[in-house]
Design a protein that fits this description.
- By secondary structure, the protein is an alpha+beta fold.
- It has a single domain, classed as Nuclear Transport Factor 2, Chain: A.
- It is built from four helices and six strands.
- It has a six-stranded mixed beta sheet with strand order 2-1-6-5-4-3.
- The longest helix is centred in the N-terminal third of the chain and has 21 residues.
- The chain is globular, with a radius of gyration of 16 Å.
- The chain starts with 5 loop residues before the first helix and ends in a 17-residue tail after the last strand.
- The model has no long low-confidence stretch (mean pLDDT 94).
Length: 150
Amino acid sequence: MSALPQSQTTQHEIREVIAEREAAIRDRDARRVVQVHTAETVIFDLAPPLRLKGSDALDPKALEDWFATWAGPIGLEHRDLDVTVAGDLAFAHGLLHLTGSRTSGEQTDVWVRQTFCLRRVHGAWRIVHEHASVPFYMDGSYHAAVDLKP
């Protein structure tokens, strides 16, 4: 088998980091989720607060608390993941389908916009910034538009 061109190899490495993050979430392994990030990671997540930085963004206990709200498997599926690389920096963006049963009995089935910024650190790609969001209706209700589908 021939080696992939450098740009394809790098894109593959970045996709693998994102896939590892998703697998760790599916496995409910907070420590593995944290390991794909740098110590100075900044996260703009769906849940408050507006921003998490550094150790606050990488708190395994917060992830474990979120995992505990799921009654069954956590479904994650990326669609249209686009990766762009420039030297030791990269960003990836796409849509994420989040599904599953919650301990409250509620069914989660929502599409989320997601962006990652990654940096090569000591030869390995790590997430330095993560942003997840859903649009909201601008009709004065300010309700999250969680009913949208691609």
